[in-house]
Amino acid sequence: MPKGYARTDRIAEQIQREVAQLLRLEVKDPRVRMITLTGVEVTKDYSHAKVFYTTLDGVSDAVQQGLEHASGYLRSQLAHSMKLRIMPQLHFIYDPSIERGAHLSQLIDQAVASDKTLNSSSEAPLGRLSKEGEVEHSLLPDKEGAKDVSRR
């Protein structure tokens, strides 16, 4: 077995799959809807598990209270489906990384759009092609018509 993939990681992934299925199918609390589990971290002694979640509505105390209320039931159902000597105590933590990623993506899109508008408004035709294949660039908009002629 490779050293890079620890047992705690495998248990964390299994807990994430099982808790997501339990929340979707068996928990009837209306506060615990539209939740996505983003990750689980299990301590080395398997006594505690941090379950990271996000919601479509953003941070909500009602969702947090609903998850804390259901944590005992979820832990008992996990004990039935997973064969561990110690079933970790579940701690639910809101994960803002999805919102932060969406916000950063929006900022990047705004920056790209503003760059396009600046470039399109400042892009006047800089040169024209002469009959000989030379590009004539107008460096300074002189009244005298000073031109810089360069080869391609």
TrEMBL record:
Compartments in which it is found: Cytoplasm
Signal sequence extent: none
Classification via SUPFAM superfamilies: Ribosome-binding factor A, RbfA (SSF89919)
Domain of life: Bacteria
Residue ranges, compositional bias (Basic and acidic residues): 129-152
Chief subcellular location: cytoplasm
Chain spans, region Disordered: 119-152
Key words, A-Z: Cytoplasm, Ribosome biogenesis
Record InterPro entries: KH_dom-like_a/b, RbfA, RbfA_dom_sf, Ribosome-bd_factorA_CS
Keyword Cytoplasm attached: yes
Subunit and partners: Monomer. Binds 30S ribosomal subunits, but not 50S ribosomal subunits or 70S ribosomes.
Role, per record: One of several proteins that assist in the late maturation steps of the functional core of the 30S ribosomal subunit. Associates with free 30S ribosomal subunits (but not with 30S subunits that are part of 70S ribosomes or polysomes). Required for efficient processing of 16S rRNA. May interact with the 5'-terminal helix region of 16S rRNA.
Family, per entry: Belongs to the RbfA family.
Protein name per UniProt: Ribosome-binding factor A
Source species: Candidatus Nitrotoga arctica
Lineage of the species this protein comes from: Bacteria, Pseudomonadati, Pseudomonadota, Betaproteobacteria, Nitrosomonadales
